[in-house]
Amino acid sequence: MTVAGTTKLTYDEYLHFPDDGRRHEIIDGEHYVSPAPSTDHQNVSRHIQYALYRQLEERGRAQVFNAPVDVELSPTDVVQPDLAVVLTEHSDRILRSRLRGAPDLVVEIASPSTAERDRTLKLALYARHRVPEYWIVDSEKRCVAQYRLQSDGGYDEPDLHEESIAFADAVVDLTDVWRRL
Q1: How far apart are CA 181 and CA 130, in angstroms?
Q2: What CATH number does the domain located at 38-179 have?
Q3: Which of 3, 125, 138, 142 satisfies CB 3.0 to 4.6 Å to 31 for a cystine?
Q4: How many CB atoms lie within 10 A of CB 14?
Q5: d(Cα 2, Cα 178) in Å, to the nearest integer?
Q6: Is the pTM of this model over 0.90?
Q7: Phi-psi map region of 136: left, alpha, beta (phi>0 left; psi -120 to 50 alpha)
Q8: Cα 42 from Cα 28, distance rounded (Å)
Q9: DSSP state, 55?
Q10: Domain spans of the chain?
Q11: What is the 3 state secondary structure string of 59-105?
Q12: Integer Cα distance of 143 and 117 in angstroms
């Protein structure tokens, strides 16, 4: 669902959105609302997060955040990705209230209500704000599309992964993730 208007919404307005169990986001000043994720969605998210946490955060290489965490890419772009990873060298992007600026990795787990937005609107958004790596997890097809930012500011064609995927030398065993569904 989107609520269109003539004025672009900003982070200041975002702070007044209701705490109603839904995911509220602002993309290019427009308000988007998604329902709470399914239990399968949460299982996939938790297992990917745990793998990244064990290999990156426990070793002091990054911080791994799960939804809901506000990511302010600009005053008119505030999203809540399923997972966001900020490498230690970019820890200045971590504020007490939110992440400000591009995480080093964003993971979105596609669901029926968000899949189209994840593959189009958010793909363009994350490229525009120079998120270096973006994963779209499709738990029904049991694969992950891995997009890497190119020097021209766009993403290359995605690499598709079914068995494992790596980021910053952390390897996520996808067969283990799928086995838990």
Answers
A1: 32
A2: 3.90.1570.10
A3: 3
A4: 18
A5: 32
A6: yes
A7: beta
A8: 27
A9: I
A10: 38-179
A11: CCCEEEEECCCCEEEECCEEECCCEEEEEHHHHHHECCCCEECCCCE
A12: 18
